[in-house]
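ugh ok so i messed up the first submission bc i forgot one of the chains. this is the corrected input, ALL of the components this time, i swear. 676 residues overall. if the numbers dont match what u have on ur side tell me asap before i send this to the collaborators (the ones from the other lab, u know who)
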Amino acid sequence: MSELDFTISQRPEFAIVSVRMQPGQKIYSEPAAMASMTPSLTMKAGLKGGWKKALGRMFAGESLVVNTFSAATAPGEVTFAPGIPGDMLHYRLDNSSIYLQRGSFLAHSEGVELSAKWQGAKGFFSGEGLVLLKAHGTGDLFFNSFGAILEIDVAEEYVVDTGYIVAFEDTLDYKVVVLPGARPSKTIKNFLFGGEGFVCRFSGQGKIWIQTRYVHSLLSWVFPFRPSSSKS
Amino acid sequence: MEAITRNRPAFANVLVRLNPGEKIIAEADAMASMSASMEMRTRWSGGPIKAILKRIFGGESLFVNEFSSAVPAELVLTQGMPGDIECIELKGTTLFLQPGAFLACEPSIRLGLGWAGWASFMGGEGLFRLKVSGTGRVWFSAYGGIFTREVTDEYIVDTGHLVGYEPTIHIRVGLAGGIFSSFFGGEGLVTKVRGPGRIYMQSRNFSGLTAWMNAHI
Amino acid sequence: MRYEILARPAASVAKLTLDANESITCEVGAMIAMSTGISVETTSGKKGGGGGFLKGMKRMFAGENFFLNHFTATQPDQTLILGPTMLGDVVHHHLRGGTLVIQGSGWLASDTGVTIDATWQGFGKAIFSGEGLFWVKATGQGSIFLSSFGAIYEVDVNGEYVVDTGHIVAFEDTLEFKLKKAGKSLIGSFLGGEGLVCRFNGTGKLYCQSHNPPSFGKLLGPKLKPR
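and heres the new structure output, hopefully the right one now
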């Protein structure tokens, strides 16, 4: 599969990717990610891979719908940007797999398949969802974060708060453990014990990408600014 | 007057150094900090009627602040959102800005309202646009990083990513794909710009942020 | 302890390298990732616990968490990545005696040479300064990491300087501030959106943040679902 010609700019806080496409090339993105494009491209929304794949994506915190941008006869250019402020990375899959945390997927080229990977008890305890998104195949993948993305090369073991994981290579193994005091308390019970957080303990050899901000912090900060619901 | 835009693009702010006799006009509440000798005078943004029209249709504040100082002094100007600030120098030329984008200008710049047309209104950007003209520097702000594109023929911009454009740019509203794909695919209406001319885009879309937050609340 | 500040100014984190037995105290929730040779202790006061209940309560009023986390390396060369909750900056301040007064949520972490307490700034300032009721007071000798919403810029004040409410991060206590109207006329000050400002006086270092969290909140809030 031919590699995409792209540029990521405005890293790390407002990263945006511009992809220059040749006739015959296609790129698939999450809905509403397109920021601009040349009129030579066509955009089509659909349930890529059928209902089963689409539902899998939904369980992994992504959208049912995938938008397809294709250059039919003339070359073109398309830019993608997520809504939240943050970083973006490109990862080249070469008959390999990578795991993405909920909401991290932005776009991929032909040759990449997305599927849901059930995490069982690990996902249940992490508080970040039961399912991870697995990207596999051969092609280009773009994922995004809230805050900057830092790359960590794990040689033996490393601990990451579950809320800060963006992606990791499938050569790594992990387990979810409780780290007392890692998170602010949300309930009285938690308050008495100083809150508790879940962390992922990674082991093996491979790369982890972490984000420098936690989305739920933003959501709880904005709470007092939201309108109060009218009781009718 | 010396002005440096710092911390671009994430938390851009403008450090302004004024000499005696120099003035800068800024949007209400744009001041973050300043020398104690700086004098701030609040006035209508171009007279009461114009100010009210600009407030309603241009998304700007009713009042602007004029800063000056009897001795050399500094001032830091900022905006409410995280994002970029761009400075352009007008030389008897005009620039159109989306509502809310204006931050500051030199006193020689005229701020007015221009008819943006039904196409702009349909695209969710309002019937009017802010028109800045004259000779001098203008600062405008965005949510996201600001970047430019020289449009020669036609280009499609997602509504909400367009910050400003030159008067030679013609704007109309269209669909990103077919009717089904445009709405099902979350792109909805897009802005089709026709050149030749320069457009200023922002790398994030504020309604993209609020949509994302509403989906995660 | 060695430190490096990455991804300034919007997504900043402090990456610390601790040697065996070196320790850092930070707000709960600040840990993003770390090596496995680090132990964590949660207390309401100093490392080792005890007697911190009142301090914990005061800290809570200052917009911080009741509890503190103490990270201590049990092996050499351990890395720890700390970040604040809001989008924004992190800066390092070296405290050499004296006192640094820090805005409610501006304290991120400090080493064991620094004592953290809360301080009351008076009723008028509490209501109108746009900051919290209590401020964090840091004393002693050592490293402090400050965080903000927006980029942090330093101003060396010698005489007077004006900061809009909501833009203060921290200041040395050789400075003091009073709330004043922004312009000459009171009505003008409010119509011009500036209202009251903090007028600093003295000689010392002042850290300001380029953006004001409530301004951003007021832009976002109306477009969000009711709570």
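quick check: The helical segments of chain C are 53-61, 123-128, 186-191, 213-220. that seems consistent at least. The longest helix of chain C spans residues 53-61.
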